[in-house]
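Researcher: I'd like a candidate sequence for this fold, 158 residues long. If you have to choose between options at a position, lean toward the conservative one.
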């Protein structure tokens, strides 16, 4: 890679980190297990792998690297999902990690406008659509009940 291509890649990395930060802010604000730094690292890493596959190894198939990024992000996302008492938690956070990787990959191939649009759409889904989500209403309604129950359970453990 030429020095110019590397400088351009650094710009892409910074842009991917910034866009990923915007997605991670919502998760951080709602105290989710994968927050600001996780999303930024996922977007940055996906961007770097994409840039390297497309530019540093021009004879290789960039689709293979993209497929491996998606598989790896699936593994990270699965680590955020919890199953407790018959219900599944943090699926939205796992999905936001997956979307963040896609944003990073879009930046990595130079599709920065597409990445910006995807970031805005993800943010709207996380911040605005959340208001209408059944899960959010149940979470707000049950949060005080859950904290009381969790307090009882933790007292029973001692």
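Model: Candidate sequence:
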């Amino acid at each position: 890679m030429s020095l110019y291509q590397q400088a351009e890649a650094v710009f892409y990395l910074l842009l991917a980190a910034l866009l990923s930060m915007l997605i991670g802010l919502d998760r951080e604000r709602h105290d989710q297990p994968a927050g600001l730094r996780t999303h930024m690292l996922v977007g940055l890493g996906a961007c770097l792998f994409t840039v390297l596959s497309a530019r540093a190894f021009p004879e290789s198939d960039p689709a293979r690297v993209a497929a491996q990024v998606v598989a790896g992000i699936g593994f990270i996302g699965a680590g955020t999902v919890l199953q407790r008492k018959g219900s599944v938690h943090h699926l939205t956070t796992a999905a936001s990690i997956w979307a963040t990787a896609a944003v990073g990959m879009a930046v990595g191939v130079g599709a920065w406008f597409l990445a910006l649009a995807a970031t805005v759409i993800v943010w709207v889904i996380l911040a605005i659509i959340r208001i209408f989500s059944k899960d959010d209403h149940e979470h707000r309604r049950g949060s005080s009940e859950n904290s009381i129950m969790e307090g009882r359970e933790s007292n029973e453990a001692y």
